[in-house]
Specification:
The protein has one helix and eleven strands. By secondary structure, the protein is mainly β.
Amino acid sequence: MKKNVAFGILIILFALTSCGRDEDSLQKIDQIFNLYIKNSAGQDLLNSTKSGSYTSISMNDVNGTQDVAPVTTYSLKMTTDSVYYIEYLAGAKRITIDSISPEDRTYESEIDLRLSRPITDSTTEITTDRLKIQYHWTPSVFEVSKVFYNNELKFTKEPNVPNVVTIVK
């Protein structure tokens, strides 16, 4: 009898602790964004096989602990219709820029995006652009909220819409 009571108490405790956390208490994380770069004629400038496109891409964390702080958590990907884009996951240091309350904060990362493309057989053009990514944090969500490219606002988060930034160079 004592074993049955102890077993019953264990079952009840297990049920109570397993129900203590529901889906609503989980934080939604939406920090990935896709960066497309094209020219004014619509040419994909990330497709290195096309003339005039960038052949090398690198990222450096402006707020990193050293002058050279490579960001490696991005990748060059391609859509099903063969358009290339940079998928940025995370990796650059986030600085708190606004703390409205302990329950509502804004963070920001700054990245120098270095793009190289051949001009002639012996010369290469190197362009360094600045990406500024702002994130919104609450206990229920952590998401990309704004993206600036060379200090120009290029993206503002909309609910249930993918984080896509298109740059025309």
